[in-house]
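User: Is it possible to get a 3D structure for a protein together with its bound compound? The compound here is adenosine-5'-diphosphate. I've pasted both below.
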Amino acid sequence: MHPTRCYHNRLGRIRILPDQVANKIAAGEVVERPASVVKELLENSLDAGATTVRVEVESGGRRLIRIVDDGCGMLRDDALLAFERHATSKLRDVKDLLSIATLGFRGEALPSIASVSRLLLETRAAEETTGTRIEIAGGKMLRCEEAALGGGTVITVRDLFYNVPARRKFLRTEPTELAHIASLVTHYSLAHPEKTFLLTSGPTELLHVTPVGTMKERVYQVFGSQVLDELVEIGTRQREMFLPPPSVPASEAIAEYRREPDDPPTRLFRLSGFFSRPQVQKGNRNSIYIFVNGRLIRDRLLLHAISSAYHNLMPASSYPFALLFLQCDAEEVDVNVHPSKTEVRFRHGSFVHDFVRDTLRERLMESRPAPAFSPRTVELEQPAARLPYSEFSQMLADAAPSAPSLVEPPAPAPNGAAEPELPAFTLRPAAGPAPRLDFSAPPLEITPGPPPSGKLSRRLDAHGEFPPEAIPAPEVSLSALSDLRPLGQIHESFIIAAGRDGLWIIDQHVAHERILFEQVMKQRAAGRVEMQRLLMPLILQLTPEQQIDYARIADELNASGFETEPFGNRTIAVKAAPANLSAAELDKILYEILEIAESELRGASLDDLRRNICASIACRAAIKINMRLDTAKMEWLLRALAATDCPMSCPHGRPIAMHYSTRDILKGFHRI
Ligand code: ADP
Ligand code: MG
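Assistant: Yes, that's possible. Here is the predicted structure of the complex:
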């Protein structure tokens, strides 16, 4: 039998899907979970020019999501139209797709949400004296009436996915869904410091921020001052691009409207925001938030740019916290790529990539943040601020369904003071690589005791005055390293040094590793790595796999200060090696490099390979732990470290120096 005939007999003729079905398919893309509803509605409110947005949810958004805004509202006719597919006020023709300045433009969100929930819209435009109330369930209009309403728009979404059980099944636990919503609202609030945002979950207020003048103040409002201390502020950096001749169109469908010959010849890109010191290391990318022209997006290109900024400052498997805002001409970015508008395509991707990478790296080098010595527990002011972080989301996801207590408001302090209770987790310094020695240092770790009251510290003054000017601001740069006075070593591995701003502990091995790494990289870039000739060539036996890897990296190896050449079957001869490397270790280091080439670097860029080779050389050549150093040597090490570009961490991402500030010392002794 003919296979197609059989097919027809069983399933009937191909036909166009009814609207109802088509709507649900689209909804499947746009409305994935409660947070996607919040995102669409929040974006609509922002597009409507709202200055105050209130988000109320119940049961992680499954039972209820309500968004109240004071934006422009909708005229009655528009309110009805808004629920038609592809009905939007933000786009007229295909040309407008080239420069989308609003967050929405597809006209799909409202009909999609309405088709999978029970939705109530209440809205009034300033031009009309009465408002409109529309009720829709599962895409069916139940009611449309005139109503006495205040200005702005209220959209209430109940029972999400009540008519799509398959989708409901895929929802995670309520706390997880709530965490996603809180993360979203928190981060939109960071993008708009001039607006008021309120997020409540049932009776619990999770976030409430009022207008402030700067993003820094907003970060402070949301996360509190100690988190702010963990972050480096970018300020605003910009880079101008001279437009090359008309380039590849961002989207085929609109190709014919791309770059006109009379377009301005340059484009300006601006970057602002915050990112964490290298010591704040996260296990995944969930703490990276990127806004492009005010839109929260996920973008592989920018994620890669961020990771490369931390290359050799953080282990490859770790990620920072980042809150980045990129501004550019609307024409430089195509947002019409993905139904949920979370992906973008840059017209000049590599320019954007390099701009972001270079800017972060420059700021890291300028600020040279010093890791604080005590693993501090950071106090977060806003309950919602705890939610964006992966650990917390994970914690919630892992927790039993009874977990909601985790997001209850902090219990008021016993004395009724406004002091928030210590949250369970935070943006915290490095879970990072394990220390080489067991150096958990109980005697040095400070547990911040009960905060001494003003009265108490007054009394303690009897033990001797401490001049207030001797207490430096908490922000300490590693440039201070050059002024340190080494006092000695612990375990002949860690240098203890005193400075004007407190006590420092420096890991001598990684410090020297960083110094040598930068030195070798610089020599490598200049094409003259210091070498030493071996008295006798070293002959190395290779496995067939190593032989292949060797062939691939031989040129780079030789440019990095080695002189190697094939020497018969599966053997190479090493005639020279970078200075400082001990001849006895040469075979180890070469095998190590070949191993890197095998495991990590297949397909990695030449730049990565180069950095990894230099890092291996530096690691092998550096002073070891368990090695006694005299004072002159320690002084030299500190000065040389201070002179490096990135004294924060070694090329493998371990921290180098820990700072124990005078302030912490004073706190520990209850003097402040
Ligand atoms: P889009 O945002 O892509 O235009 P939506 O389906 O999200 O599509 O919204 C459809 C239209 O409804 C919008 O273009 C806008 O005119 C109107 N609208 C939606 N939400 C609001 C709101 N909160 N305030 C004012 N107008 C709104
Ligand atoms: Mg929209």
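The first helix runs from residue 3 to 11. The two ends are 91 Å apart (CA to CA).
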